[in-house]
Design goal:
Blueprint lengths: L5 E6 L3 H12 L4 E7 L2 H11 L3 E4 L8 H11 L4 E5 L9 H8 L3 E4 L6 H6 L1 H12 L27 H4 L1 H4 L7 E6 L3 H9 L10 E5 L6 H10 L4 E4 L10 E4 L5 E4 L5 E4 L11 H12 L3 E5 L8 H9 L3 E5 L9 H7 L5 E3 L4 H9 L4
Parallel strand pairs: 1-2, 1-3, 3-4, 4-5, 6-7, 6-12, 7-9, 8-9, 12-13, 13-14
Antiparallel strand pairs: 10-11
Helix pairs in contact: 2-3, 11-12, 12-13
């Protein structure tokens, strides 16, 4: 029996962009634009009438913009939202990530030129993102409090002392020297929930790879730094990682460490289908820091990071995977868990406290 197509509500105040995006999306038999709107208010009125599976919306629109629309949708009709925008080119690159904090799932860049040929090049990736989002479960979110993520209370590792969690951690043969984190779909919000609570005296560097569309990385870094006590930056080739700083792999390069512990940017082939790759980063970090490595694998589609966690395990490090219930997409953590190389499977909201316990950090 043929599955019905995924129903998309498309929202954009540019008639040209609406027309092009609708043509691209409708080119797939698996996806169909069932309605279009020129602003958030029109979209809100259409939602109960057309019952979309996914909403694709621009950010800046006359009338109700994408941020207000996202907040309204998440309080009334929780539906997966994909932001399609070129707003990262503007003065406030963190703008786009306010939508992710409000409940949108992912971001996708509009071609800057606006040319048909440039839109055509991104067609397959756009359709793939919509398909992934159609399978994501989202929950009603309240904005009565200051835009903090509202998560269910989940069963987890007992939240007492580190020794009660696992006495072997205290007897680990080397102190923790680095935390390395990988994430994909849903990752920006997950990274925010881990990084924002960490204290400024967090005693080791944090090294991250986030799968994100080209052009959005600087906005992610800017947004996270505005919400965190830690310094957050894109790792520069040749610099040494230092405590109290979060480093991100640059666009289109694997992030690694040389034999002296300096960052390097590698443009070798994609690993697990990605460049930058979480696996490539995990393997390189584990090779240098050995049993002093803590690996954290967050929400995302695919298997990137699983083999890298194996390298961390082989080096004697500690691996943490985000649990299924708190993941946007339980792909990457699931693959690592299946390999048998994960020490702890934790709800997202418990990862930052657990990292603090590993480090004995006083908040």
């Amino acid at each position: 029996m043929t599955k019905p197509p995924i129903k998309v509500l498309l929202v954009d105040d540019s008639p040209v962009a609406l027309k092009i995006l609708q043509r691209l999306i409708d080119s797939s038999s698996d996806v169909q634009v069932i309605a279009t709107a020129s602003n958030g208010q029109e979209a809100l009125e259409l939602i109960p009438k057309v019952n979309p599976n996914v909403i694709c919306t621009d950010f800046h629109m006359k009338g109700m913009d994408g941020l207000a629309l996202t907040q309204k949708v998440m309080t009334k009709y929780p539906i997966p939202i994909l932001i399609i925008s070129n707003s990262v080119q503007e003065d406030d690159p963190g703008n786009i990530f306010k939508l992710l904090q409000a409940g949108a799932i992912d971001v996708f860049p509009k071609p800057i030129t606006g040319q048909d040929s440039d839109y055509e090049r991104i067609k397959n990736l756009l359709i793939t993102k919509i398909k992934v989002l159609s399978g994501v479960s989202v929950f009603t979110k309240s904005f009565s409090q200051a835009s903090q993520p509202q998560l269910k209370t989940l069963k987890s590792v007992p939240n007492s002392s580190l020794n009660s969690i696992n006495p072997t951690v205290d007897n680990h043969r080397s102190p923790i020297k680095v935390v390395t984190i990988g994430a994909s779909t849903g990752g920006p919000k997950a990274l925010h929930q881990i990084i924002a609570p960490l204290p400024k005296n967090f005693p080791v560097p944090i090294i991250c790879t986030q799968h994100i569309s080209p052009g959005f990385l600087e906005g992610l870094v800017s947004w996270l730094e505005s919400e965190s006590q830690l310094k957050i930056k894109i790792a520069q080739a040749g610099e040494y990682p230092v405590p109290g700083t979060v480093y991100f792999a640059p666009d289109n390069y694997h992030l690694g460490l040389n034999s002296q512990g300096q960052f390097g940017h590698l443009n070798s082939a994609p690993v697990d289908g990605h460049r930058p790759s979480v696996t490539a980063m995990f393997e390189s970090v584990a090779k240098f820091y050995r049993q002093g490595t803590v690996g954290v694998l967050l929400t995302g589609m695919g298997r990137d990071g699983a083999r890298g966690m194996n390298a961390i395990a082989q080096a004697g490090g500690i691996n943490i995977a985000q649990d299924e219930k708190s993941c946007t997409v339980f792909g990457m953590p699931k693959e690592a868990i299946a390999l048998g190389v994960v020490n702890y499977v934790l709800p997202l909201q418990e990862i930052a406290p657990f990292l603090n316990k590993l480090q004995r950090v006083k908040v």
